[in-house]
Amino acid sequence: MNEVIGIIIAAILCWLNFVIVDTYFGLPEQPGVKGARIIGENVEKRGGDIAGGFFQGNIVCSPDASAGTLMASIGYLLLGIPGGIIAAFFVFIGNRLCADPGYAGTVGSLTATLIIFVCSFLGFTPEMFIVGMVIAILTVQGIDHKRASIVLGKIAEKFNRHA
Amino acid sequence: MFDLMCNAIFFASYGNYFGLSNITIGLFDVLLAYIVTIIVSIVVALVLKLPLLPGKPYRYSFDVSAIYPTPIIAIGIFSIFLVLNYTFMYNGIVLAVIIGILSALFVKYLFDFVFPKPLDGDEGEDM
């Protein structure tokens, strides 16, 4: 498969994976730690959405499904499917060290491993998923906090997880 | 005569002793060993009287239970053994059972000591 097309499709798949898993496990609902609350209130002060702000703050403050997807792709590149499962284990340890129950991170890395395994039959490589996940996190955290938080807040409302 | 150390090392390196370490076990065996690990860890955790589900509310609970951290820890450690190409006897089934039992014991008795729960409310990180 052409690399550029593969990276674009992998970025979309990674974005959907981590946003759906994180929203389902309640990241927009409440901040887990104080730093997430401060980031969320700051984003709201600049005209964003409070639920999206909590989402962004929680991603920064502890490894959730975003970090899980990235680590699962790296583990899959190095060691295959067991690498993805080891990534889930390490993400769980990291979550517990960051005062987070860790449901989102472990489930996110396991689903990411499953997605990469299924897509490997279509010609996708794990490298495409690493680059795609970096692009996906960039769209949430890097370009425009305000608009990204509004989009995340709308998704949170659809899942009935708004703050 | 009674060489405990040598016997123990020989027993532990059963698969690798005769230069068999290059022979990897098949895909079906790996799948079966994963399933055995998950089932054994859940069953042993239930035998040790851990609850099946974490306490409510589910998505924010720090409680350990039989289906949330136990199988994750078990399959994670089993994967580490697998990528190091150490699968012991009977295509990895024995190793899977041992890791399942040990991870359930870890979750029951040591987990709260290694990963303590965070402090309640705002006591933790005051500005």
What does this structure look like?
- The complex is a heterodimer of chains A (163) and B (127).
- Chain A has one domain.
- Chain A contains eight helices and no strands.
- Chain A has helices at residues 3-24, 34-45, 50-61, 65-79, 81-97, 103-120, 126-142, 145-158.
- Chain A starts with a helix and ends in a 5-residue tail after the last helix.
- Chain B has five helices and no strands.
- In chain B, helix 2 packs antiparallel against helix 3 (69-83) and helix 2 packs parallel to helix 4 (93-109).
- At the A-B interface, helix 5 of A face helix 3 of B.
Sum this structure up briefly.
The complex is a heterodimer of chains A (163) and B (127). Chain A has 163 residues and is mainly alpha-helical.
Which key phrases capture this entry?
heterodimer, A: 163 residues, mainly alpha, 8 helices, 78% helix, globular, B: 127 residues, 5 helices
Question: Which helices and strands appear, and what pairs or packs with what?
Answer:
The complex is a heterodimer of chains A (163) and B (127).
Chain A: H1 3-24, H2 34-45, H3 50-61, H4 65-79, H5 81-97, H6 103-120, H7 126-142, H8 145-158
Helix pairs in contact in A: 1-4, 1-6, 1-7, 2-3, 3-8, 4-5, 4-6, 4-7, 5-6
Chain B: H1 4-12, H2 27-47, H3 69-83, H4 93-109, H5 111-114
Helix pairs in contact in B: 2-3, 2-4, 3-4
